[in-house]
Amino acid sequence: MSQLLARFAARADDPRAAVLEEPLDAGARGGATHSYASVVRGAVAIAAALTSEGPLAPGERVALLVHPSAGFVSAFFGVLYAGGCVVVLSPLHPAPETAYFCADAGVRTVLVSAPMRELAAPLSSACAIRELEPMLATPAKGDARTLADAVAESAPALQLYTSGTTGKPKGAVLTHANIGVQQELVGRAWGFSESDVLLHALPLHHMHGLAIALLTALGAGAAAHLRSFDARAVWDDMARATVFMGVPAMYHRLFLAFDAATDDERARWSASAAKLRLATSGSAALPVTLAERWRGVTGLIPLERFGMTEIGVGITNALHGPRFAGSVGLPLPTVETKIVGEGPAHEDADTGELWIRGPSVFAGYHRKEAETASAFVADPRGGAPWFRTGDTVTRDLALEGAPFRILGRTSVDILKSGGYKLSALEIEEVLREHAAVAEVAVVGIADEAWGERVVACVVRRGDAACEPADLRAFARERLAPYKVPKDVIFLTELPKNALGKVVKPALVAELAAHLPSPTPSS
After folding, report:
1. Sorting pLDDT into bands at 50, 70 and 90, what band is 30?
2. What pairing do the DSSP bridges indicate for beta strands 376-377 and 336-340?
């Protein structure tokens, strides 16, 4: 039996609010409130609609292209109750990227909400497009508790796409057990309860927004206020929330709005933020300057933690106790960690690559056996294999209870920008398709607003005419907006080693001293 589904099914008769929605029309006031009973009923209806012509194949991938809403929650759980595995699509992705996700996952059915119909049209040649709203009206057959009993803990529940060193996104497969234990551990560690209201402005196609934020809240019976991110509106909505989860780019924009506000607005916003039970920051390291500004408003820095698509949250600061800027705390219960220094012996060290294992670690990459094998290291003592996170961390091993500090990615080809993890190689591959590009290297430059500011360094082909705006427009047509380089710098040559490989650390050092400070609109 799936504990994830059983936990949700237990709310089938609960009249309390599960989802608070923002109106779809910008500027409109008020929104809809949906009870747990209604979203569970909707999930059962969607499961019935999906299986009306026969059961899904075990673990069949079903994609969601659904705006943040109660319908999204019902669709997510409805697919799981039907025995399927969810692939979440995003309106931020251009059509070719969305088509790649569906093709790679083997998606045959895409559930689409009304605001997303036009975006789904390009998928219709390869997938069956089913509108969500009529499915929600399907007469429910069976009940959520019975459906939960039929789904195994080991069944795949969610396939999230994450960038790898090959440059192509990989589908990380998470089981019901992976998500269920994560939901329980994070909910307990961060003190979630039925009295909480989560202010949720994160994207739902990422681990942070979907599992760490939304599913943690729902697992505890809390209400989730789903909205798009607008800095002034988020400040206002803190008055009706107990928890806010964000990424560094969000905190940066919040303070841009704060600084531009009136004295009365700042006083009101400060009072609301100070009453939050919890504010967290994740997906990238929070700059100390932003942490201290939040402390100045609320008395505490945001609670930071370490997480990945493949593991959810593995390490976190304590809810109650001292917090230190730049520290991500200690492992959650059931999570084992190992810091591995350089060399083939995998010796323990106080600084090195972080390895993790535990019941929340993902099952593997979909249809990518070689990549899955290389992501894990066998335990010579016969224990569970270790997952190599690719992050460099440090910890004072001589000090009991010393927290972990994340120093950065082991590979410079994986960038964290605006809460997203990006592949520099993927962006480079796209830019190389432009006729004016002879060589290109994409790097991340430390930036308070973005975590890492994505910069493309380009060597022109001959005397080809090309401007930075041309290349950014070219990339915007082929990549999600958050993957488009913020800057394009033209160079006569790229620094390379004796084997002809670009030396990115040298490039980063050179650029950091010459790039102009970003403007608030960037």
Report:
1. low
2. unpaired
Q: For residue 178, count other CB atoms closer than 10 A to its CB.
A: 27
CA distance 28 to 24: 8
Q: Which of 162, 180, 184, 164 is nearest to 172 (CA)?
A: 162
pLDDT digits (tens, 9 = 90+) for 188-228: 999 999 999 999 999 999 999 999 999 999 999 999 999 99
Spatial strand order in the sheet of 169-175: 128-131, 109-112, 61-65, 85-88, 156-163, 169-175, 364-365
What does pTM read for this prediction? 0.85
The DSSP-derived string for 95-136 is HHHHHHHHHHHT--EEEE-GGGHHHHGGGTTTSEEEEHHHHH
For range 99-107, the mean pLDDT: 97
Alpha-carbon distance of 100 to 105, in angstroms, equals 8
Paired residues of 226 in beta bridges: 21, 200
Residues 414, 426 contacting (CB under 8 angstroms): no
Please list the residues that pair with 490 across neighbouring strands: 458
Virtual torsion, Cα 426, 429, 431, 435, nearest 10 deg: -170
CA atoms within 13 Å, Cβ hemisphere of 50: 33
At residue 394, the 3 state secondary structure works out as: strand
Categorize the per-residue pLDDT at 522 as very low, low, confident or very high, splitting at 50, 70 and 90: very low
In this structure, the strands spanning 223-226 and 197-200 are: parallel
Kindly list the structural domains of the chain, giving each domain's residue range(s) and its CATH number in brackets, ordered by start.
3-228 (3.40.50.12780), 305-409 (2.30.38.10), 414-512 (3.30.300.30)
User: 282 CB contacts (<8 Å, ≥6 apart)?
Assistant: 208, 212, 245, 247, 304, 305, 307, 313, 419
Nearest to 42 by CA among 141, 137, 115: 137
Residue reference for tokens 């224990």: 383
Q: Give residues with Cβ within 8 angstroms of 180, minimum separation 6.
A: 2, 3, 4, 7, 153
Which residues are within 8 A (CB) of 484 and not within 5 positions of it... i.e. 6 or more apart? Answer: 454, 472, 475, 476
Residue 317 and residue 297: Cα distance in Å, rounded? 20
